[in-house]
Amino acid sequence: MSTNRTPATLWAAIGFATLGLLGGCAPMVSGSMAEGGFSAAKSAFDALSPTAAGADERQKRIQAAFNEVNIGDDVQLVLNKIAEPPHEKTGNAQGYTCYEFPGVYSADEAAVLMAHEGKIVFYGNSSCSDEMRSVRGGEAGSKSGEISADSSETPAG
């Protein structure tokens, strides 16, 4: 009888080991482990990216100027610190002016200064077209450095 029991025990042990291995591999088969590995690799490569780190002297200069910006600052003083003309400068009838500096945060992410009557009301990672669209509609966004204008300055949409 012991000879019949040994193969059954052996097969049961092999079955449990197989289930354990398959259970451990399930995340890899479903893609979550692969996705996690891809995300980690992407983060590592992004950290080495010269645009993300601001390795370019131009990027460092503009990022340093933006790090010192406060809402209500005179826009001309900040533009003087940046020391280059904006790629795009747009304005509207409500008195808002937007200055866009491309390739500051990454190859395709621009730094934007939005001013109203010469004072900064928004700064951060955006585009002038997005910011001017939000001002036209009288919307207040939730981006870094943005504040809501009081009702006397908010443009009617």
Descriptive account of the structure:
Residues 131-157 are annotated as: Disordered. This protein is an alpha+beta fold. The protein folds into 2 domains: 2-48; 56-136, Beta-lactamase Inhibitory Protein, Chain:B, domain 1 (2-Layer Sandwich). The chain is 50% helix and 19% strand. It has helices at residues 2-30, 32-48, 50-53, 57-67, 75-82, 128-136, and strands spanning 88-91, 96-106, 109-116, 119-125. A 4-stranded antiparallel β-sheet has the order 1-2-3-4, sandwiched between helices. Strand 3 and strand 4 form a beta hairpin. The N and C termini lie far apart (90 Å). 16% of the residues are buried.
Write the layout of secondary structure elements.
Blueprint: H1 2-30, H2 32-48, H3 50-53, H4 57-67, H5 75-82, E1 88-91, E2 96-106, E3 109-116, E4 119-125, H6 128-136
Antiparallel strand pairs: 1-2, 2-3, 3-4
> For the CA atoms, what is the radius of gyration?
28 Å
Mean pLDDT: 74
Strands in their spatial order, largest beta sheet: 1-2-3-4
Domain count, please report it.
2
CATH topology of the largest domain: Beta-lactamase Inhibitory Protein, Chain:B, domain 1
Say how many strands there are: 4
- Give the SSE order as H and E letters: HHHHHEEEEH
Can you tell me the residue ranges where pLDDT is under 50 for at least 5 consecutive residues? 139-157
So what's the CATH class of the largest domain? Alpha Beta
- Largest sheet properties: 4 strands, antiparallel
Q: Estimate the global geometry from the Cα principal axes.
A: elongated
Through-space gap between termini: 90 Å
